[in-house]
Amino acid sequence: MALTLELIRHDVADAPGEVSADVPLDENLLDRGLYPVRVMALLGRRRRDHGVEADFADLAEQPAIDIWAPLLEAS
Q1: Which one, of 32, 39, 61, 18, lies nearest residue 10 by Cα?
Q2: What is the DSSP string of 3-32?
Q3: Most CB atoms closer than 10 Å: which of 26, 35, 49, 64?
Q4: Could you tell me which of 20, 22, 29, 18 has the C-alpha nearest to residue 65?
């Protein structure tokens, strides 16, 4: 399955009932309440399932969906 912005939005939407489309592409996800542990879990799944080579520092440096998309693409 190809990674899409909508898939990343779905992965980071953290409140029950939160609509993933309401997560802005350019918002700082850490300011939004995305905890580092959840970032690590998301990254772990992408590494395991899709061969992603990004690390936590890559995602933490600029925690926004539009920045993450190319970093989380399968290699």
Answers
A1: 18
A2: --HHHHHHHH--STT--GGGS-TTS-TTTT
A3: 64
A4: 29
Whole-angstrom distance, CA of residue 45 vs CA of residue 47: 5
Enumerate residues 6+ apart whose C-beta is below 8 A from 28: 63, 64
Using an 8 Å Cβ cutoff, are 43 and 52 in contact?
A: yes
* 3 close to 43: Cβ distance less than 8 angstroms: no
Rounded to two decimals, the pTM is: 0.82
Q: Phi and psi (nearest 5°) for 49?
A: -90, -20
Burial-class residue 72 by CB neighbours within 10 Å (0-12, 13-18, 19+): buried
